[in-house]
Each structure stands twice: as structure tokens, then as C-alpha cells.
Amino acid sequence: MRSLKRINPVHFILPAHALRRYVSTYYFFDFTSDSGELEDLLHPEWASVHYTVSGSSRGSIVGEPPLPTPDVNMTGPTGKAARIFFEELKLIGIGLLPLGWYRLVGCPAERWANKVGELEDAPEFALFQNIWTELKSLNDPQQIAALFDRMLLEKITVADPLEMEIENIHEALANPDISSVADLADVAGIGQQRLERLSRRVFGFPPKRLLRRQRFLRTLGSVMMDPELKWSAALDDQYFDQAHFNRDFQEFMGMSPGQYLAMPRPISIAATLARAEHVGHPLQALQGPGLSDDH
């Protein structure tokens, strides 16, 4: 691929308006270390496609040994943080919302939860492998975003009757007042058994796990945006106390809150701040089913 035009360490471009129900952002990372290998911990999120322009990385879900990351890959929805190690990494990404997974990938999201797969090895990722073939001749982020818009819009030509149910679930998940599976099903307007099936098929995890992830990420996002904020002051209303949150932190991130804050986190800090500025949401998983006209 041609050398990517020089950009800031993290740069976001919003997809075409008609795609914002399906795709959260297009993003461009450009990191180089002058002091050896860097480490970061990437919080749980929805699925993403990654095209490595130069450099390489190793990574894994917390608790598993790090392995070389495929240069061109799909990372499914994650229910735990992912460790990443790199010295140089120039990468282009497409963030998929749950509805985007359903329409652009199509296979059960649960199959790829907490997993990374090479695009060329899985038939369900054929669209994104085809995008990679055309992407190789481009180096300008705006031109790349236009290519993404064109090829993704070509895939979504007619409405699907399941879209409304998926968006209702997603919108309810993004509501901080929803604290139980029963409330989630009620607000989404579907039965709990159907909610369970659709959650696994489209979102990658059971609804109870998704609600736990949301309350955790709301707290994490608050502190990432304001490092001076104490965890106790940032706690989501659904936590009983600090100890309750600490247990969730250990489960989702594989370490304590203090250990996490002591890490350099070059990608996650830069990405969170840039995303909040350009998209209006610090974390992908906190974004609802579509952005407003203001973004």
C-alpha cells in the first residue's frame, strides 16, 4: 500500500449520514515509539475492521497470551479489554455498530466475540477484504473515507425488517436508567427470550453481560475524560459502592483501577479525547444507534 499521508496520531472521520446507523467512525492511527515497545489496554467495545498500513502489533484479550495480530483483520465485539504491544503502528479502522454487524457481516456476532480473525480466512468478511483490495492504491484519509462510504452503501440497498428491533435494543442499552434485563426488554418492546437471542446474534453477548459492560464503561469514560476525577465521584448510579466497581474493573480490564491509571496508554488516551471532540462520545460502546445531525 502507498504510504499513508501524514496525520495526527489519532484522526476520526464520520461516515456518510446514511451509514451512521451502521458504522460508528472511520479512524486513522499513526504511532511510533522512540523508546522500544509500547503497551496499551483497549477497553471493551463493538466490532472493528483493521487495515495495517505499516508496522505491526501483538495482542490478546486480558488473561490470554499475546499473539501477532493479523495485518488485515476483524475484531469482534469484546466483553473484556484487549492488550496491545507495538513499536510502530499505522492503522486504518472501521468501527461497526451492532446494526452494522448484522447488515455488513451477517453471521452471529457471538461467534466472533472476543476474537480476531483474518479477513481473507472468513467468507463473512468478504466485503471488507474487497475494500482492502481497493484501499491499497489510496493514501489520503478523505479519499479512503469516500471509498468506505461507497462500498458500504452498495451493500445496504434495501431495508431489513429486523433493523427497528435491533436499534430499539441498542437505544435501550445506551440509556443509563436501564439496569435490568426485564427493563431492557420492556423499553425495547420485545420479550426476554427474543431479547436473549438477538443480543447474542447481533450484539455478541447476553443482555445481562451487555448491561454490566455499559455501566462499567460509563464510569471508565468519565475518568478517561477527566483523569483528575476520583473513581468514587465517577461511579455510575448502578454501582452499590467502590468495591462493587473494583470487582467489575478487575473482571473487564484484568487489573485494578490504580494499575490502569499508572499505564502510559498512548492509543486509548489519544483516541478517547479525539473521539469525544469529533464524534461527541468518548467510547464507541457508549454511542447510541445513530449520531445526531450535530455530528
Automatic annotation (TrEMBL):
The keyword Methyltransferase does not apply. PROSITE patterns: HTH_ARAC_FAMILY_2. InterPro entries: AraC_XylS_family_regulators, HTH_AraC. It comes from the Bacteria. GO terms for molecular function: DNA-binding transcription factor activity; sequence-specific DNA binding. This is AraC family transcriptional regulator. Pfam families: HTH_18 (PF12833). The keyword Repressor does not apply. The lineage of its organism: Bacteria, Pseudomonadati, Pseudomonadota, Alphaproteobacteria, Sphingomonadales. Keywords: DNA-binding, Transcription, Transcription regulation. Gene3D superfamilies: Homeodomain-like. Residues 163-263 form the HTH araC/xylS-type domain.
